[in-house]
Batch of 2 targets.
Target 1
Amino acid sequence: MEIFRASNVTKRFGALVAVNNVSYSLREHEVAGIIGSNGAGKTTFFNLLTGMFTPDEGTIHYRDVEITHETPQQRVTRGVMRTFQLTSTFDNLTVIDNLVLAYFRAHRKASLLQLFLNTCKQHRNNEKITAILETFDLKDLRDREVRNLSLGEKRRLEIAMTMLAEPKVLLLDEPLAGLAESEIQAVLEILRRQMGRQTILIVEHKISHVKDFLQRITVMHEGSIIAEGGYDECMSHPEVRRSYWQIDIDAETSAEAGS
Ligand SMILES: Nc1ncnc2c1ncn2[C@@H]1O[C@H](COP(=O)(O)OP(=O)(O)OP(=O)(O)O)[C@@H](O)[C@H]1O
Ligand SMILES: [Mg+2]
């Protein structure tokens, strides 16, 4: 069932058409990705979905509700979506206390300070929080201060905090950026555990990172969608091959494709 749809959306910056008449939809529980070269318009399109930008033309729907003009906060409050870029960690608190705060921020309206003074300790054993520690492999890091985590561990925590809000759609713009190979595998592994239960859209520059993970790939180039489907299907698409050198694929794949 379709959960989310952008219809003919266009976003201009002055004379530049960053997103050009793009139509895109997500089905419930799908794990989809948008890839493309630098400046293809991926982040701009992502920002149209989150509400950071309003399209100059076109509409965005969540199920049957038009949300084109809703702010990011309105969309988050509706439970439509969540992106870890909108989630901030408290670096001098522990992993578990960050999760407690994220949980309450999502489910109650108490002030953070009040929460922290009165209730943080009592909720460290909350069922949902315990479960998320397990799912995101954060159990051993539970009492570690966030500032002492590696970038990969911190990214796992950020996604875990995002998931505590139980968003209908999890939107991730370059969740693997800056991570070492082993950390990339760890992040993909925890996302894999959400498959079939969570709608996930990942925007990624490097297709090599996500080609085995995504169920459906959409390729953007110069503001437009030029191909859609499985990895092989996309990579053999004439328009993708034409703009191919601009898409950041790893050396191994490009050697294979070139031979
Ligand atoms: N706020 C802005 N103001 C003006 N131009 C912008 C703005 N944001 C993006 N652009 C331009 O829009 C085009 C699309 O940029 P966008 O960031 O969406 O690309 P991208 O596909 O995310 O690229 P990357 O892979 O580098 O992240 C680029 O030409 C960029 O310079
Ligand atoms: Mg980008």
Target 2
Amino acid sequence: MPPLSWNVSEIFYSVQGEGRHSGMPAVFLRLAGCTMGCDFCDTKYAFAPGIPMNSLQILVELAKYPCKTVVITGGEPAEQDLPSLISVLKSAGHTVHIETNGAHDCDVSKADFVCVSPKKTVSENMLKKADVIKLLVGPQTTPQDVEKYYPCENEKTTLYLQPLDNLQENIAKCLQLIKQHPSARLSVQLHKLIHVK
Ligand code: SF4
């Protein structure tokens, strides 16, 4: 059997800009490809095929950084063999966070943290596995959109509302929605505010 391989868009070391771990250093492992096709996607460059990397190549790259927390993101990581990738990283002693659109139900039970950001479709099973549900808020977002995920069914899950592109009108809408849904939390894209990747 050939060794497992993943198509990787990029690996870089930065600071988590969103949600519960905002401000925390992490290595980002961005897998290539996503078929969701959101107009507002801010990582369209990850739609390119990427570079095939096997587990050893990925671990060697991750070992260049002093931080053991790895955020697997995309693109959409669940469009590749995400459970095997999580196992590889966990076996090497990494703390593994997942960022997914949640459209593909897959086994993320070995991950330390799972953020599901629903887009056009989402798996109910993946919503149940989420530590955080991150809803992007733009001009079209309504209270009914928030109520699809609020209150979160699962006690461990927190709903974050994140203004699209940090735009002032979207921030104002988030604040209004959070005041109406007080268990929800605000997530701003810190990395865009401080102009880092
Ligand atoms: S699901 Fe995420 S990565 Fe995929 S197109 Fe939409 S915003 Fe981009």
